[in-house]
Amino acid sequence: MTGLRAMEEPSAQEGPSVNEVNERTGRTRHQPESDPESEPESGAERLRRWRLVLGGSGADGTGHELRGRDAAMDGALEALYGRRPQQGPGRGARDGGGSRAAGLGASAPQVARWLGDIRTYFPSTVVQMMQRDAIDRLGLATLLLEPEMLAAVEPDVHLVGTLISLNKMLPDTTRETARAVVRKVVTDLEQRLAARTRATLTGALDRAARTPRPRHHAIDWNRTLRANLRHYLPDHGTVVPERLIGYARADRTVRKEVVLCIDQSGSMAASVVYASVFGAVLASVRALKTRLVVFDTAVTDLTDQLADPVDVLFGTQLGGGTDINRALAYCQQRIDRPTETVVVLISDLYEGGIRDEMLKRVAAMQASGVRFVSLLALSDDGAPAYDREHAAALAALGAPAFACTPDLFPEVMAAALEKRPLPIPDMAEQR
Question: Per-residue pLDDT tens for 396-428?
């Protein structure tokens, strides 16, 4: 089943609740208009709810007529999900095999009005999903080249990915509008992620820097006790610590180096957006030296643009092939302090280069002391598609590949910097 509508066999005893209908359709929890003389659990009310789920036409079997706001919501959904198979890619529950035709066409004004309608009737999360479906199902991406269209859309990470993929096609009249849309999304992500990331990594860097003369509040008591067990006094039931172990205070010295190596193939769009934001945040941590590299079959170093993640994003070019080996070779050549370096490969591992050389390069980096982290995705999209054979080969080298959410990423980086085991989520739970 596709789109917001889904079909299920209604119970003979009881119709679906409003919450159930909302879960199936993905729509707002607004209670559509109903006959005020009807009881909430009446047969007419159940038919109305099923009519909203099924979408109408002679195939819905309800015979119920929608009015007012209900009819307007239904029309907005019909324009996207009610197309006949020959009119658009894919068919959902609303297609029904009937002759009814609907759709948005290729008219920018018509699409702009539709975007305004769905923002009126649905919450922003549903609007974003419907926008993605309109782009994917109906091929409306090129309409985003018009500034009027961009002004009407609801910005989100996936829209940014679409705009970046159209980067080279954007006319001058649209480019500034596109940058404004991208900047809004980037700013929202920074507000959500930056403070926690800086705090987590600063703490990790301080803990990673051990000192034999720590301040009292910086003493690592567990390590101190283990190091002084031989000084245990049984008569007093205590340990007399002759050597303290603790954390050094933050200073202006660069203690660790991070290399973000990002696959910019089309399937990695959301990961590229999040990685660009995190790259800018990491670059703002004074004890870290951060490098950001993007690749397809060529390698582009965007480190000098890390001050502004919007510049980083417009410096990428989504799509094309993949040569992970070439990208890792570039990164390896620029590692000066391997034992203090973390390399983060963000890729679905569909390698178009030389597989064996890629694996040898990862093994060589690890042997030199580099902490190697492989993320199959950096997004909230759930478990990604990826090359399982390459992922298994990396795991055999001690570098398990896994998908990471933006909220988990600071913890992953903190563990990598401290050389602790990584907090690897259960991939089955992400599906």
Answer: 999 999 999 999 999 999 999 988 999 998 755
CA distance 261 to 323: 12
Res 108 pLDDT > 70: no
Count the Cβ atoms, other than its own, within 10 Å of residue 215.
Answer: 12
- Rounded CA-CA distance 191/335 in Å is 31
- Rounded to an integer, what distance in angstroms lies between the CA atom of residue 427 and that of residue 420? 20
Task: Write out pLDDT tens, residues 34-84.
Answer: 444 444 457 777 877 787 777 765 546 667 777 788 888 888 888 888 754
From residue 269, alpha-carbon distances to 111, 158, 317, 382, 394 in Å are 24, 7, 10, 14, 23
Tally of CA atoms within 13 A in the half-sphere of 130 that contains its CB: 31
CB neighbours of residue 90 within 10 Å: 14
| Backbone angles phi and psi of 76, in degrees to 5 | -65, -40
Angle between the N-to-C axes of helices 108-121 and 124-138, in degrees from 0 to 180, rounded to the nearest 10 = 150
DSSP code of 211? E
pTM listed for this prediction: 0.68
Coil, strand or helix at 75? helix
Q: Is the dihedral of CA 80, 84, 87, 93 positive or negative?
A: positive
- Asked if residues 22 and 29 have their Cβ atoms less than 8 Å apart, the reply is yes
